[in-house]
Amino acid sequence: MTRFRKALAPLAIALLGFTAVPQPASAAQEASTCAPTVLSATPDARLTSLFTNHGNDNNRLDDWTGADGTYSLKLPGGKELWVFSDTFLGRVNEDGSRPPVVEEGGSTVFLNNTFAVERDGRLSTIHGGTEAKPKAVMPPRDANHWYWAGDATLAGGLVEVTYQEYERFGEGAWDWRWHRNVVARFAPGRLERPISVHDLPSGHGVAWASGILRDGGHTYVYGVEDLGSPKYMHIARVKGDSLLGRWEYRTADGGWSANPADSARVMDGVANEYSVSKVGSGYVLITHDTTVALNPNIVAYSACSPAGPFTAKQHVYTTPETNGNIFTYNAHAHPEIDGPGLVVSYNVNSFVNTDHYDDVSIYRPRFLDVTFQ
């Protein structure tokens, strides 16, 4: 089973060395002028209840009972697409537990990626395969590979969802690695399987796309170079809406290059999933603070440009679930969702496998409303 790997892998990966983009004092001072002040971060009761009610509903036994990842995208017609990575499907028992997964002799199905669609305050689960035999919406090429989801965007009426492919290369617990980045294109009315799958730039160890932002005629794509500790932000962009266009990469001198080898380390301390959103006249980076391993703190940085520099670090929220075996990770924003501020989600997990069977509420996203001055 792979649901713990995104959070635990950093503890087992060796460090390498490159040069980050320099951020002179003048740039930091300029960015601070665009920095909105975080006023509050409070739980979003509507979204939390939405997923609680959907997860506990046993009207269907091939639907969502818990997942991580939790990206979102507004679809044509106003529906909301929720994009998940590792997902439990099946029954929730009356005592709030779930049966073990099929591979361990139970009835719960475990898939590496799924969707859910929200319409008029109700969710429906989308997976591939059949009701009797569900499969991932982005199926692996074989038993030694799988896909975890990144951010998504709309282009030419199609949904483009990024995925990172991972592969096993041995029998050991840590004998697996990130392999490549792809983008799968889906028709909004047929999300059970992709229309097509295309390679994305995959050189130099950068996993794209931790976040996506459309701004000023470009689509900005944010990635992570995951060396365990630290993790480095990388930034690319493409003209227009589709990720299939010509990419260019943020360089160490603050310019752009078509050569992926020139992609620079913009900053460290980001998580594998994070976001950059337009707030007021500036841009806000939301991330779990990975300067400390398994940190419960969500932080914000600000910039005057979608390409940074990101400075003026502010504390946003300390996740109350973090305790003992339970940890949180991969906070990011959902700017297309209406709310009093910026809607932010984060994931909750446990180091102990049986916790997920004993308590279904653990492995579900939590939501916040973050307001700014």
What's the topology here?
Layout: H1 5-8, H2 25-32, E1 38-43, H3 45-56, E2 64-67, E3 71-74, E4 80-84, E5 87-89, E6 109-111, E7 114-119, E8 122-126, E9 128-129, E10 134-135, E11 145-155, E12 158-168, E13 176-186, E14 196-199, E15 207-215, E16 218-226, E17 231-239, E18 247-250, E19 256-257, E20 267-268, E21 275-279, E22 282-288, E23 297-303, E24 311-318, E25 326-333, E26 342-350, H4 355-358, E27 366-372
Antiparallel strand pairs: 1-27, 2-5, 3-4, 4-7, 5-6, 7-8, 9-10, 11-12, 12-13, 13-14, 15-16, 16-17, 17-18, 17-20, 18-19, 21-22, 22-23, 23-24, 25-26, 26-27
How would you explain this protein's 3D organization?
The protein is mainly β and 373 residues long. It has one domain: Tachylectin-2, Chain A (5 Propeller). It has helices spanning 5-8, 25-32, 45-56, 355-358, and strands at 38-43, 64-67, 71-74, 80-84, 87-89, 109-111, 114-119, 122-126, 128-129, 134-135, 145-155, 158-168, 176-186, 196-199, 207-215, 218-226, 231-239, 247-250, 256-257, 267-268, 275-279, 282-288, 297-303, 311-318, 326-333, 342-350, 366-372. The strands form 7 sheets. Strands 15, 16, 17, 18, 19 and 20 form a 6-stranded antiparallel sheet that branches. It is globular. The relative contact order is 0.18. Residues 1-22 have low confidence and may be disordered.
